[in-house]
Structure formats: C-alpha cells, structure tokens
Amino acid sequence: MPFLAFAGTFLVYPTVLVLVGAFQDSDGAFTLENITTLFTGVVFDAFLLSIELSALTALIGAVFGALLTWAIAVGNPDGMLRRTVVAGSGVLAQFGGVPLAFAFLATVGFEGLVTKFLRDNAGIDLFAGSAWLFELPGLTLVYTFFQIPLMVIVFLPALDGLRPQWREANASLGGTSWTYWRHVGGPILTPPFLGALLLLFANAFSAYATAAALVSQGSPIVPLQIRGFLTGEVVLGQENLGKALGLGMVVVVTIAMGVNVLLQKRVAKWVRR
C-alpha cells in the first residue's frame, strides 16, 4: 500500500494532469489546439530533433555497447575485467544530469582541459568551425557516454543466456561458426538487442537534466521545450501546450516500451524451448 500510494502520487497523478491539461486551453475549456500545435513550427522540429538524437545515440550505444559486452562475456566470468566493466557500467549508466554536463565542459568546453592542451600544444582549435558541443553533435557525444554502459547492463544477461550446448550441437552436426550465428545465436540475440536498442532510445528521449545544463540558450529538444512552456516568463499561458508536449513524449515512449515487451516475450519463449 505505501508503494501504491507513492506511485499514485508521483506517477499516476502527474500523468492524469498531463493527459487532461493537453486538451484544455488557458481557461480550462476543451480544445484540440494544443495537440494540433505539436505538428507545426518549432514544436514539431523539436520532436524531430529529439527523435533523431535519441535514435542516433541509441544506435551508437547499442553497437559499441554490444561489442564491449561480447568482449567481457567470452572471458572469465569471475575475472577482474568482467567485474570492473560491470561495476563501472552500473555507475556510468547513472552518471548523467548536471555532473555529466560539467564533466564535458571541464574537459572539452571552450576552456576545457583537452581543448586548451590541443590549442596550446598542437594548434588545434576544437571549436574553430562551430560551438558543436552545445548543438546536436555535442549532445550526441554526451548522451553516448551513458548509453554504452546502459547497453552493457541490459545486454549482458542475453549473452550469458547462450548455452554452450547449442554451439556444441551445431559443431557435432558439421556446422560452422557462420551456421551457428546464422541459425542459432543470431535469431536468439536479435530480439534482446532490438529491445535494448528501444530501451536506449526511450532513455535518451526522456533525458532532460544533461541537455538543460549543457544547452543554456534555446530549446532544441522536447524536454527543453516543455521547460520553456512551463516556466517561461516571456509568453505566459502556454502551460497546457507544455502538457501536450509531455503527452506526446508519453506516447512515443509507450510505443517504444510496448515493442520492447513484445520482443522480450518472444526471446523468453525461444530460451524456454
């Protein structure tokens, strides 16, 4: 009961407020204007940029994270390398928000340690072309920092679930490594890989604090757009438009997580067989 009360207060109740407010105007009357605004102007561009950023960082994180996971999965299960990588991934996957943004600013910001070293010793100016750290390339780099370790945590159980008997059976029947991955390992790992990819997408799509601390001007992605509508002092009375944006995010994340659940059910059925 305490858990249900906690979840209802901080999850269900805010969701209901967002759902109701998305269909109300500033006077509380029913309207569809907030929903239609999602498909116009800068609001729609913010959704496209958020989806692009989330998909790109999810793909990069999934590929490199899967390679790192495979490297530790084939090693000693009780070895120091595996324990170190798993422990580090558990920490780095949660290392986001303001501390992560500050770490990148202190390292590769305008006056960061690496930036000054390259400029003073190699004549390389990392910001000669543009202020890329505060735009899509910079957000991609920063988001990838916590996407890769999250992939390690999520994908490692799937690799550990590959039974040695399957490879032995393939070899005893005259199969090659290609045959094993084509007909056994690949089909079994594809659903959890895609599920992890969707999880990384949802993780990046809903991230707020890191981008808020890194991007001080403008609202290029949806979470920052919501902040602007809820706390903006220039244009008032647009709180419900922010709630409509929140509803749009809920829909996108729900679709991603729904597909993830279906993939997990499928791979669980295969493993039981």
UniProtKB/TrEMBL annotation:
Annotated keywords: Cell membrane, Membrane, Transmembrane, Transmembrane helix, Transport
Superkingdom to which the source organism belongs: Bacteria
GO BP annotations, alphabetical order: transmembrane transport
This protein's name: ABC transporter permease
Recorded topology in the membrane: Multi-pass membrane protein
Similarity comment: Belongs to the binding-protein-dependent transport system permease family. CysTW subfamily.
GO cellular-component term (any): plasma membrane
Subcellular location: Cell membrane
ABC transmembrane type-1 domain: residues covered: 47-263
TM region(s), chain numbering: 46-73, 85-110, 140-159, 244-263
